[in-house]
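User: Sequence recovery, please. Input:
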């Protein structure tokens, strides 16, 4: 009889210990998760606005021939309806010189590609990498 009571007490204490340990672990895990989320949110800029400018590449040119955006992060998205372009070359146009600003590279088996660039205010010429006569203008305003 004593053995049964002792065994019953041991089982009850063991179950209570497991429940207590599990609840403590769950609370610690939740606070750690909340802390990790707070840290991740503090790393993300509060005002990060990305603009998307889309261009379509044709055999006869690039449409639209002129687009506008404001300075900052700009995603340039292309759709290649020629099926043979390798992408766009982006040059900044200054009064006397052309400066390379970026490239939108496209894989040969895909029709679409995009690249995110940080562009300050200015005028940018976009040229089809395979058809140098096909050009468009991107005006980035302050």
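Assistant: Recovered sequence (142 residues):
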């Amino acid at each position: 009889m004593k053995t049964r009571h002792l065994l019953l007490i041991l089982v009850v204490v063991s179950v209570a210990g497991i429940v207590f340990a599990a609840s403590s672990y769950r609370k610690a895990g939740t606070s750690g998760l909340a802390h990790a989320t707070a840290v991740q949110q503090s790393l993300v800029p509060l005002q990060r606005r990305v603009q998307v400018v889309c261009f379509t590449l044709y055999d006869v040119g690039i449409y639209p021939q002129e687009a506008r955006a404001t300075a900052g992060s700009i995603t340039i998205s292309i759709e290649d309806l020629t099926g043979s372009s390798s992408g766009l070359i982006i040059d900044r146009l200054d009064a006397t010189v052309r400066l390379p600003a970026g490239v939108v590279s496209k894989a040969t088996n895909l029709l679409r590609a995009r690249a995110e660039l940080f562009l300050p205010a200015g005028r940018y010429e976009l040229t089809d990498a395979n058809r140098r006569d096909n050009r468009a203008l991107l005006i980035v305003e302050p």
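The radius of gyration is 30 Å.
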